[in-house]
Amino acid sequence: MVQGEAELKDKKESGKRDMDDRPEFEKKIAAGRVIGAAVLASIGICVLLAVWIQARFRPFFGFARPADVQAFRGALFAASIILVILNRVINGRLLKAPFEGDARKGLRILFLAAVISLGLAELPAILGLVLFLTCGLSSDFIALAFVSLVLVFMYFPRPTSWESYLALKPPSCRIGGNR
After folding, report:
1. Which of 57, 58, 101, 178 shows the greatest Cβ crowding within 10 Å of its Cβ?
2. What's the CA gap between 147 and 141, in Å, rounded?
3. What does the pLDDT average to over 10-39?
4. Cα–Cα distance for residue pair 131/81, rounded to 1 Å
């Protein structure tokens, strides 16, 4: 066996030994899941608010219609696209940070990545709500809320993904998982 392979094997085994102490792992994954559930609840509240406003003020054309609706709409959609890309870039960079088989450091990285990714995942729905409240465009709100839901499900903390990351085996969905 080559020396580099032996070091990698030792790191993997060290990560597994560190994860035998599961309480810290369980605590972090549970906290990440609570944050994910809170983001889902927030998106749900936005949807309920939009439905209530649309029913209460029928027909609803928005509270403060901008002079150029299409430009405003384009700007918010562009911001949402930028947020999706930014989310992917930040998540990827965080997960490429070396942790040398130290499970505690790996858990901190995973938790930070989950919190940031889930927070960014919520923003397209909020931008959609702003678009709905200003212009009354419910279909645009629904589209952006759907984008947020997809992002939340993509970045929701999963024990199997976290365990494979800590064992220095990147999940199959990661591109360029070499650290």
Report:
1. 101
2. 10
3. 75
4. 15
How confident is the model at residue 130, as a pLDDT?
Answer: 93
Amino acid identity, position 129: L
Beta-carbon contacts of residue 138 (< 8 Å; ≥ 6 apart): 50, 54, 60, 132
Token output for 173: 């969905």
Name the one residue in this structure whose structure tokens are 């465009």: 137
Structure tokens at 35: 């944050």
Domain ranges of the chain: 21-166
Q: What is the DSSP letter of 60?
A: P
Angle, vertex CA 49, rays to CA 48 and CA 52, nearest 5 = 85
Q: Using an 8 Å Cβ cutoff, are 128 and 45 in contact?
A: no
**Residue 59 in tokens:** 């027909």
Across 117-139, b (16+ Cβ under 10 Å) vs e yields: bbebbbbbbbbbbebbbbbbbbe
pLDDT digits (tens, 9 = 90+) for 153-168: 999 999 988 888 888 7
36-45 tens-digit pLDDT: 999 999 999 9
pTM over 0.85: no
Query: Which pLDDT score, from 0 to 100, does residue 168 have?
Result: 75
Report d(CA 130, CA 64) in Å as an integer: 10
